[in-house]
Specification:
By secondary structure, the protein is mainly β. It is 14% helix and 47% strand. The strands form 2 sheets. The chain has a 5-stranded antiparallel beta sheet with strand order 2-9-8-5-6, with no helix packed on it. A 4-stranded antiparallel beta sheet has the order 1-3-4-7, with no helix packed on it. It is globular and about 30 Å long.
Length: 118
């Protein structure tokens, strides 16, 4: 929720959204993402900061299933959503306990899976 107010304030003040994304680090990942041609950059990228994990794509991605589980398989987040082109889609991890987590982003038979620590 905190990120929502920060982004809303930045939009109202005309500040660039890039300021929100400066401290993100890329999440290491394994992927099998179908690409139509070599220049297609639709494979989502995964990032995190202290409060959120982010899904980013240069192309709009519809009907994405995003799931986050801990190492024991306990589900902490699951949703089906759309990630707009060129936008960072944020998922709050503020309430998650410290530990290691898996994040999966699935669209049809394509997937990206990463791990991150909080």
């Amino acid at each position: 929720m905190r990120s929502f107010y920060l982004i809303l304030t930045m939009l109202l003040l005309g500040m660039p959204l890039q300021a929100v994304t400066e401290k993100k680090v890329e999440i290491p990942k394994d992927e099998k993402w179908d690409k139509n041609d070599e220049r297609d950059n639709s494979s989502p990228k995964l990032y995190k900061d202290d409060f959120n994990v982010y899904v980013y794509s240069e192309k709009q991605l519809d009907n994405l299933t995003i799931g986050i589980t801990d190492m024991q398989g306990n589900l902490y987040h699951q949703e089906v959503t759309t990630v707009p082109a060129g936008m960072y889609y944020a998922i709050s991890i503020e309430s998650f306990p410290a530990g290691t987590y898996y994040i999966s982003v699935i669209q049809g038979s394509s997937y990206v899976i990463g791990t991150f620590q909080k």
